[in-house]
Amino acid sequence: MTGKRITIRDVARSAGVSYQTVSRALNDKGEIDVSTKQRVLDTARELGYRPSRFARGLVRQDSTSIGLVIPNLLNPYFTEVASGALDAARKRDWHVVVYDTADDAGQEQSTLSMVGSQVDAVIGYFSQPDAVIDQYTSGMPVVQIGREDVTGRFGSIQVDGEDGVHAAIAHLAAGGRRRIGMLDYDYDEPSSRYQWYAEAMRERRLTGCVMPAAQSIEGGQRAMAAMLEAHPDLDAILTYNDVIAIGAMFQARLLGRRVPADMAVIGFDGLAIGNMVEPPLSSVRIDTRQVGAVAIDQVGQLLAGQRPEVAVIRAELMLRGSA
User: Fold this and answer.
1) Are residues 232 and 262 in the same domain?
2) Would you say residue 173 lies in a domain?
3) Which of 83, 102, 185, 257 could pair covalently with 262 via S-S, beta carbons 3.0-4.6 A apart?
4) What is the maximum span of the chain, computed from C-alpha positions, in angstroms?
5) Would you say 197 and 164 are in contact if contact means Cβ atoms under 8 Å apart?
6) Which of 38, 59, 80 is the last residue of a domain?
């Protein structure tokens, strides 16, 4: 590296850690293990690193800031996850900055392009390929939520709802329901939740039907109307998430179906808002606050130069009044 000033990123690259980890090691901050700290200090000494006046201002920040990138603040699922992350960050005296991408790929990429200069680490729900995320975050600690087959250096939190969905179909079948449909996420490919539903239906030799639904109450209403028009003998519905389920339940009642006597409804997420409708919504429940808390914990491990194992949050059936 002779001939140019050694930077904090040079030290990070040579030591095989993030530049945030170098900052913590040089300034004797927490969230870094002893061996990683020593490796960073040895590397800095070998390279002849001397922080510039400007760099000293950057690395001596009093608090860690986390960027939380979510698709839609209007969806209470993401609000609950954010609440869990904020609570866990508060216990560490960290700050969280929330970015809403409006479920738009272009806005997501724009957010990624600026987030690296504003925070120390990123947590998010991303649709961009891993290579694109890596390009924009430049070695920064990143935790991806709800995405399968995460590669490379990223932390990862996955939701496993297979047992919960199987339990939901088993419950409906045990109650005499035989015409069980699903409102899936309106996307290019069937979701993993649909795949769990289809497998559970096959195991019970039941014939299913699926209809795409936008992730909103209105989307649930439109999809339910289309589903009942195509399958008027339907007697139960499983939905991709709770906001779709609430819309589906409203629409079923508007069309003269009693819930749950004529039509059982089960959502997915187990949101608190499900207790605010009548009847209360049954759901395959995720511990949303745990998702946020685990994400913050993984950021802590990444900042300390560690590679966290993939975290799996398992969902389970929660029966209320709608099924």
Assistant:
1) yes
2) yes
3) 257
4) 79
5) no
6) 59
